[in-house]
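Wed. Picked up where I left off yesterday with Dioxygenase. The coffee machine is broken again, so keeping this brief.
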Amino acid sequence: MTGTTMPALFVGHGNPMHAIEETSFAAAWREVVTRFPRPAAILAISAHWETDGARVTTMERPATIHDFFGFPAELSRVQYPAPGSPALAERLRLLAGAEVAADDAWGLDHGSWSVLRRMYPAADIPVVQLSLDRQRSPGEHLALAARLRPLRDEGVLIFGSGNLVHNLRLLRWEDNRPYPWAVEFDALATQLALAGDLARLADYPAFGEAARLAIPTNEHYLPLLYVLALRRADEPVVSFIEGIELGSISMRSFLIG
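Structure written out below (tokens, as returned):
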């Protein structure tokens, strides 16, 4: 598929139960992939794989990882048997221009498969996962992501999975009303994303209390930076999902290209 430029996606994945329950978000994940060609392969960047030093999965058959607890047994029985792609992993390592280690032990965590099983339920497209290197600053993550841009011209769908606002300690189980600070930060970050202002998005602590509450730890936020860094100057950015669940989880999602 060389010559076919694929879009890039950031998806707010939220509750793992969207993988098996019929929700408006699951329906939107199914719909968005009808807007562009079927990819040759998928590169996933999930909030749920952090490492010291960047790593990329290289196995032929990545395992389905059930990295959660307290959910119905039905969810833990889900399998997403997509093949891997050692060739894509090696191509990524070549483009990265910095050390990205090969990993044959991880697989696909729920940040990836809970969304992909809605998008591509046949699980017949090769999927590779890139980890989030804890040792890199947001600006360094942006730089690494930009080096991966050529993959889009090679038929690869680059897919970031996280949440723009993600604070599990302040979930509202009984009262789903979003916190004012969650609404504030979701709106501000969306405005900056649509404007392509990566420098301000990377410097999110400068936004004060709303950012501190929205991003107590940044692993769910960083996949958004990866996807936005893949944008070319003339490409549109579309917010195709919005909404805040349980008070403090933004489901905001973006399509680039």
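Quick read: The chain has a mean pLDDT of 96.
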